[in-house]
Design brief:
Structural class: mainly beta
Mean pLDDT: 76
Protein name: Peptidase S32
Largest sheet: 10 strands, antiparallel
Low-confidence stretches: 96-103, 342-368, 380-440
Organism: Cellulomonas fimi
Shape: elongated
InterPro entries: Peptidase_S1_PA, Peptidase_S1_PA_chymotrypsin
Number of strands: 26
Oligomer: single chain
Number of helices: 5
Helix content: 10-25%
Strand content: 25-35%
Radius of gyration: 34 Å
Length: 506
């Protein structure tokens, strides 16, 4: 920030922004350049109070070692430049399947909230230089917040593309765990949903996880409180985030103009524009680290302003997608807590159990008011009881405890509205006890492969109206009679038999 104050800084940025936007694509295509930003020029280690176009490079080389066509001009259209050495990386944590690291918070949270561990159930293949040793890895990131689909209204967990999708082999329906598999998440007990949507573009690195029916959730971020909505990031704004690795940290919005090149592994290298740069607090150090990707960056009114995705390797700043672009790309809205802002919806019960390990472990007593605001993903009646777990943290959110002892009155029991897309793998073992209320209206298209073994017990009530179209397959075995006389005898024999039946068998 310039010495003349935020207003003067914003004025300088307004003048510099169009120049930066005009040249940034050409600058970032140069070898070794990883980012273009607007920031205060530093000369000889001292701040100058002058805003400049900042060019981030992987390694700052002596000027004589840089080819003429790769050199950054001292100024561009009257705007000074500043070349700064930075290594920038994504912040998902690749954890080998063996011996997971000790982490700040690998606890299971029910109801599901923002600020906690998340990762795909499937392992992902990684090679050097992304990881030290080639192999299959699990990925750990963070749930940012609970959002809702704009069309269906269903609840989803927001995170990054590179956390939940991980690579181009992702598929809609990929199982997601909370906590992640790298944080000792169990593929059965800790499943919370499936990957619904993922977007990797020139502005966002984002994904949403559709919560399973019956999964309890709450529109809050652990250690931050109930979410009050969303809004744009503002230069100089004080912000905070809660992530799986570094927990709760504070920072300041240093820029909303960052253009950065990021390596997404198998998904390739992408250039993201209009990113939010969050400068770390000197009192706390790093704002984020590996495993914090997907965290929601919130302002002092608990409005989400960005979705954390990357940071520099020195911990001086972190990078977030602007939240408005994220929500539009995924076609979702931030779910707001009922008392935190307009638009929040009433909730129902969560699940209870023993506390998880790590910094998020512990127990609390849920007040009935808080429990009434916890909701569950729509399911059939009685299914919510299947969500109990061996490990649940019951820390308070915004002053309200949740989890164990929560009131279960009013759980929503909406039916399933999506068709089944997977075949049945187990036979039905229970008889049908309800009559079929509608007749079959589609013809049979498969031949019968088993003969009828039960006699018909009901009389035919309709005559045959279709002619026989198949020849008799068996020859007649009875000897031929005397022609017309035999036919006449057979007729009268049948006629007399019918009369006897009408007369009661007399």
């Amino acid at each position: 920030m310039t010495s003349e104050g935020p207003a003067d800084e914003r004025q300088q940025r307004s003048r510099i922004r169009p120049v930066k936007q005009r040249v940034e694509n050409e600058l970032i295509s140069r070898p070794g350049v990883v980012g273009i930003d607007i920031g205060e020029k530093v000369s000889g280690g001292e701040r100058t109070g002058v805003e400049s176009i900042v060019v981030y490079v992987q390694r700052k080389r002596p000027l004589e070692d840089v080819a003429d066509d790769e050199r950054v001009p001292v100024e561009i259209d009257g705007v000074p430049t500043d070349v700064v050495e930075k290594r920038i990386r994504l912040l998902a944590d690749a954890v080998k399947l063996v011996a997971p690291e000790d982490l700040v918070d690998g606890a299971a949270y029910r109801p599901v909230v923002g600020g906690v561990s998340l990762g795909p159930e499937r392992p992902v293949h990684r090679t050097s230089p992304q990881v030290e040793k080639t192999g299959y890895y699990t990925f750990s990131g963070t749930i940012g917040a609970i959002v809702t689909d704009r069309l269906s209204g269903l609840a989803l967990a927001l995170t990054n593309y590179h956390v939940a999708a991980a690579d181009p082999r992702w598929r809609r329906g990929d199982v997601q765990l909370q906590p992640s598999r790298g944080d000792e998440g169990d593929p059965v007990e800790d499943r919370i949903g499936t990957l619904a949507r993922a977007e990797l573009s020139d502005e966002v690195d984002a994904a949403v996880v559709l919560l399973d029916p019956g999964t309890p959730y709450y529109p809050a971020i652990h250690e931050v409180g109930e979410v009050a909505g969303s809004g744009p990031a503002v230069l100089g704004q004080k912000v905070r985030k809660r992530g799986r690795t570094t927990g709760l940290r504070h920072g300041v919005v240093g820029s909303v103009d960052l253009t950065v090149e990021l390596d997404f592994g198998a998904a390739g290298t992408r250039v993201l524009h209009n990113q939010v740069r969050i400068d770390s607090s000197p009192d706390e150090g790093w704002f984020s680290d590996g495993g914090d990707s997907g965290s929601a960056v919130v302002d002092d009114r608990r409005r989400i302003v960005g979705l954390l995705c990357a940071g520099d390797e020195d911990g001086e700043f972190s990078i977030a997608n602007p939240i408005g672009a994220v929500l539009d790309a995924l076609d979702v809205d931030v779910l707001v807590a009922p008392r935190a802002g307009a638009g929040g919806r009433a909730n129902s019960a969560g699940r209870a159990g023993s506390a998880g390990r790590g910094g998020g472990s512990g127990r609390g007593t849920a007040g009935s008011e808080a429990a009434d605001r916890v909701r569950t993903q729509p399911t059939t009646a009685g299914a919510a009881g299947a969500t109990t777990s061996r490990r649940v943290s019951t820390q308070s959110v915004g002053g309200d405890a949740y989890g164990e002892g929560a009131d279960t009155d009013g759980i929503e029991t909406q039916p399933f509205t999506q068709p089944f897309t997977q075949p049945f793998t187990q036979p039905f073992t229970q008889p049908f006890t309800q009559p079929v209320m509608q007749p079959f209206t589609q013809p049979f298209t498969q031949p019968f492969t088993q003969p009828f073994t039960q006699p018909f017990t009901q009389p035919f009530t309709q005559p045959f109206t279709q002619p026989f179209t198949q020849p008799f397959a068996q020859p007649a075995t009875a000897p031929a009679g005397s022609g017309e006389g035999a036919l006449r005898a057979a007729f009268w024999s049948g006629y007399l038999f019918a009369l006897q039946q009408l007369d009661g068998g007399a």
